[in-house]
């Protein structure tokens, strides 16, 4: 059987003087001299008819199926069956399309990387073959024939859509410090996976890939399985997936609504069920680019995405892992439609942390970015609950929270909004400012509180004096109530002690 398989492989032929082309590019290790392409797909497609592609792919697929049946279930045995095919530059131009399909079929074999010493020679043969395929796709200048596209997708699917290794954090509580301190898990199969990802990325980006033809094979099922890979522990894989999905979104317009909906479903599952997913930051980064391209006025679907997905994403404990990307997405919405500022600010207040100071500092930073894009009308709708929360932050014993809240006055735009509404805002924040100036343990917070206090005093001295007097009256009343309460307790203690049973 093995002899029959080897007999079907073409004999190595002498070069025919074709021109050598560049290698796979800087993002991959440069292929060796004997793996570089020697012609382009334009010449090949002119000389070989589509029927030749079909027959070659069919025969080659049958050969590999037979070899698998005779050997092992996951890859060829080391001794026979998996041998390097001729280089593209060593065969005549008419044979290159068929050789391309055979190399694709050859790379559908998946090896076990759990043992680095197992099938080492075959793994290296496959790696070199993948590099040749990358080079071949990169140098193509003619449209890929119809029979090539499903073979590329089949090879990509066979390598990428795999059972993930068991996650070491599966039985641990998803705490922020756990995820920050642990090293990311690196997939041992990455030497092959990286090249497969690069091949697929270049295939998607290639102007020779017909979108109308490819969309039949890069369908909804394929996209869902691709999105499932975003939960990979390996950050290198997630980075490739992010770029590839973004290119698919840009090239296949028909799939755009489905991609948005599928990502939305991942967010729902993460927020309301698991709170465990490794690729939320990368998915949000994709959405940041998508939101940037939304046409105005915004569709109701997009506004619902903000309310039902982006704002609730502030709830999980691990928000620090993706907060930068989330903040960018939310700010993009406010910059697109300033009327959404009220919805966003009230959403932030709804999920405002109570006992997590580091999370509170992040929320204050995001709040500043949102307020920078907020117009006076929207600001007035939410300023009372907003500055009640800011006042609580000013009173925080955690100096970073109080300091970050005081930094809001460093923005000229936010300071202007506050000044124009000082009659409402000053009575809310002055008690916290006064207490900070008199007794906060941190010197920086005291100094910043004095500066903010001076801003209000210089802007409207009469209003400031009125609010200060009211504050002092309330403080005196509270002191009187405390003293009366202490007197009552002291009297009760005396009565209780006098009636003790001896």
TrEMBL record:
Residues 1-54 are annotated as: Disordered. One of its GO terms (cellular component) is cytoplasm. The keyword Secreted does not apply. It is found in: Cytoplasm. The keyword Membrane does not apply. Keywords: Cytoplasm. Residues 34-47 have a biased composition (Low complexity). GO terms for molecular function: protein phosphatase activator activity. GO terms for biological process: meiotic sister chromatid cohesion; signal transduction. PANTHER family: SERINE/THREONINE PROTEIN PHOSPHATASE 2A PP2A REGULATORY SUBUNIT B (PTHR10257), SERINE_THREONINE PROTEIN PHOSPHATASE 2A 55 KDA REGULATORY SUBUNIT B' DELTA ISOFORM (PTHR10257:SF60). The B regulatory subunit might modulate substrate selectivity and catalytic activity, and also might direct the localization of the catalytic enzyme to a particular subcellular compartment. Belongs to the phosphatase 2A regulatory subunit B56 family. This is Serine/threonine protein phosphatase 2A regulatory subunit. The gene is LOC100279734.
């Amino acid at each position: 059987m093995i002899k029959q398989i080897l007999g079907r492989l073409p004999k190595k032929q002498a070069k025919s003087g074709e021109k050598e082309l560049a290698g796979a590019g800087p993002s991959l290790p440069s292929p060796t001299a004997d793996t570089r392409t020697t012609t382009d797909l334009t010449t090949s497609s002119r000389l070989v008819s589509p029927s030749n592609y079909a027959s070659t792919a069919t025969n080659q697929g049958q050969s590999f199926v037979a070899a698998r049946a005779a050997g092992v279930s996951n890859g060829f045995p080391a001794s026979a069956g998996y041998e390097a095919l001729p280089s593209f530059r060593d065969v005549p131009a008419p044979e290159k399309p068929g050789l391309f399909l055979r190399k694709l079929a050859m790379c559908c074999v998946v090896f076990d990387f759990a043992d680095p010493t197992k099938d080492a020679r075959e793994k290296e043969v496959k790696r070199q073959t993948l590099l040749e395929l990358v080079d071949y796709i990169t140098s193509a200048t003619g449209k890929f024939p119809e029979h090539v596209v499903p073979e590329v997708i089949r090879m990509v699917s066979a390598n990428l859509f795999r059972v993930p290794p068991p996650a070491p954090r599966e039985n641990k509580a998803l705490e922020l410090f756990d995820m920050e301190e642990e090293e990311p898990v690196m997939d041992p199969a990455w030497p092959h996976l990286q090249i497969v990802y690069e091949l697929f990325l270049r295939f998607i980006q290639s102007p020779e890939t017909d979108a109308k033809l490819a969309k039949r094979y890069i369908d909804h099922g394929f996209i869902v399985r691709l999105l499932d890979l975003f939960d990979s522990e390996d950050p290198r894989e997630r980075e490739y997936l992010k770029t590839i999905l973004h290119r698919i979104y840009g090239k296949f317009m028909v799939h755009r609504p489905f991609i948005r909906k599928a990502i939305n479903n991942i967010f729902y599952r993460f927020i309301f069920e698991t709170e465990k997913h490794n690729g939320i930051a990368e998915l949000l980064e994709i959405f940041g680019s998508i939101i940037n391209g939304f046409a105005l006025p915004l569709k109701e679907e997009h506004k619902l995405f903000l309310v039902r997905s982006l704002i609730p994403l502030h709830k999980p404990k691990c928000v620090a892992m993706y907060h930068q990307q989330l903040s960018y997405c939310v700010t993009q919405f406010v910059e697109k439609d300033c009327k959404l500022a009220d919805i966003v600010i009230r959403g932030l207040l709804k999920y405002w942390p109570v006992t997590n100071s580091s999370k509170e500092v992040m929320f204050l930073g995001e709040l500043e970015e949102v307020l920078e894009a907020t117009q006076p009308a929207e600001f007035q709708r939410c300023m009372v609950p907003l500055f009640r929360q800011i006042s609580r932050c000013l009173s925080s014993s955690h100096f970073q929270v109080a300091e970050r809240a005081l930094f809001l006055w460093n923005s000229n735009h936010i300071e202007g909004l506050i000044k124009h509404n000082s009659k409402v805002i000053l009575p809310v924040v002055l008690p916290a400012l006064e207490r900070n100036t008199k007794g906060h343990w941190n010197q920086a917070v005291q100094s910043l509180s004095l500066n903010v206090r001076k801003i209000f005093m210089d802007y409207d001295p009469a209003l400031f004096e009125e609010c200060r007097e009211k504050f002092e009256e309330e403080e005196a009343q509270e002191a009187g109530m405390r003293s009366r309460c202490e007197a009552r307790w002291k009297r009760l203690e005396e009565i209780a002690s006098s009636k003790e049973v001896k």
